Amino acid sequence: MFASGTQAARNGHRRHVLLSVSCLALAGVATIALWPQLGPTVAHAAEGLGRIRPELLILSGALFAAAPVFCGLAWRDAILRAGGEIGRVDACARYGVGSFVNSVAPAHLGDIVRAVLLLEKLPAGGRRRIVPWFGVIQGARLAALVALALAAALPGLLIVLPLLLPVALVVAALSRGTAQLVCLAFLSPMAKAAAIAVVLLGLDVGSPLDALAVVPALELAALLPLTPGNVGVAGAAASGALFAQGMPMSSAVQAGLVLHAVETAAGLTYGTASALAWLAGLKPVRGAARGWRGLRSAAARTAPAARTQPEAGSP
Q1: What residue spans define the domains of the chain?
Q2: Comparing 135-149, 216-230, 234-248, which segment has the lowest mean pLDDT?
Q3: Sign of the torsion angle spanned by Cα atoms 290, 296, 300, 303
Q4: N or C, which end of the chain is more exposed by having fewer CB within 10 Å?
């Protein structure tokens, strides 16, 4: 039984390493293939990035990276409620590998990768039990996006009214014991909105409150992942949302490019760190295999000695 478990762990380790290498190769191929088209866009975005103070860039990147962290923690909460076992770092790392793939690949391939990695931590029958909790997560995220879109459309202090919707849902979730899951689902789009507000503040264009309109636009653009990393689509969606908020077209286009650049850089950084953390977490598998071999060796050495000892009661 131990040998079969060790062999299964080794096979899983090989699959994980192969997946990580494939992700890195995919990133390299996508960068080389798209660089001729990305060159002018990158140059335009770099011009805008040069106008933002480094500390604001770091803050916005950290907030963009916090969004998938909250999603990973929401996945962990759902997995635990479905009877699985997974740590916080492990859940965020597995989710982050999917974020890395989404940053360089089209068609939401990263969503498939993260689902495969995270669902490994469920017991038999756990996939059916986790479906209702995913419904809670998606419902909370949809409520947060609707609240942001409504707030962006209202003038003045009226923007506060739609933002009371997430608060009301959290209060309602307290009675059902799902408040933590709902809060984590809310925090992801809110962190993204804060990151966008910081970028707009650094660029000194529009208002930081324009970020309320950009987040729903980016989520809608993510439904059509036509290009690797959603290049072009995400930037156009952000630019369109900013232009609709009254920003001049030239400023809106540059701001959209900068936002997508910062978000992509944060996704790649977080995804790379997640892949390394995930692979580092596989080291105990090899240690367990060595420990099992040492245990068998010790048992083999002690067996002859045990056979030479007289049995109890013998003369």
Answers
A1: 2-280
A2: 216-230
A3: positive
A4: C
